[in-house]
Amino acid sequence: MLSELEGEVPQRRWGGGLIYFHEKASEVSAPARSGVALDVLDLLNGKYGLKSGANAGSDRLRGAAQELENECQRILREDPVLAFAYGVVDGGGAPQGQRVTEFIHKARQLEPPTGADVTINPVFLLAGTISKPDWTGVHGGRLFPSKRGMRINVAPQADLSGDGLDAFLAKAMADAVTRAEVAIKRKGLEWSTAPHHKVVDQLR
């Protein structure tokens, strides 16, 4: 089942926990990558204790499995994994806020329509009147294979603005891709970062 998710689904065990999906699918109808889609990922990760059971042949379980397959097919068809997902932590009226927002908007327009193997999540920490990071540059970077995501913290110098800020943000994203590649290799995963490089190259 779900041969399109080769390497993941074949390793999972199916059973009573799929009833949860069947019930959830009846409650959520949003087409966006939320609700059911996130629960699919949890189910694939075994969060709900999926396993073979005596009732594995029941009509209800077969129906749940079909619902799961339909939703996974929809995700693959309509809702690919994003190359980048962005976050901003504003320290309070951050002067860089508007420019960073514009940079993110531009970057989102470059998102490849076919998606990517993993989402890199740069979170921009901006100095404001209430708080500011006590470091600058690119920090952190933990890969979560089961969620196909990696968060990277980025803090620009408070005095950067205009084209200088844009150049810093583009370089920070390139650094984030490099960090992701190191983590992917360390985990022994065969995930491509080609879509990410395409985005970064167009931002520089």
Word description of this protein:
- The protein has 204 residues and is an alpha/beta fold.
- The protein folds into two domains: 3-78, no CATH class; 87-203, no CATH class.
- The protein contains six helices and four strands.
- The protein has helices spanning 18-27, 36-44, 59-78, 97-109, 162-186, 194-203; strands at residues 87-90, 119-126, 137-144, 149-155.
- The protein has a four-stranded mixed beta sheet with strand order 1-2-4-3, with helices on one face.
- The longest helix has 25 residues, at 162-186.
- The termini are far apart.
- Residues 1-19, 28-38 and 44-57 have low confidence and may be disordered.
Can you tell me the number of structural domains?
2
What pattern of helices and strands is seen along the backbone? HHHEHEEEHH
Q: Level of helix content?
A: 40-55%
Strand element count: 4
User: What is the topology, as strand order, of the major beta sheet?
Assistant: 1-2-4-3
The rounded Rg comes to 20 Å
Tell me the span between the first and last alpha carbons. Answer: 42 Å
Characterize the biggest β-sheet.
4 strands, mixed
Strand content: 5-15%
- Residue-averaged pLDDT, rounded? 76
Shape: elongated
Which stretches are poorly predicted, pLDDT < 50 over at least 5 residues? 1-19, 28-38, 44-57
Structural class: alpha/beta
Q: Helical element count?
A: 6
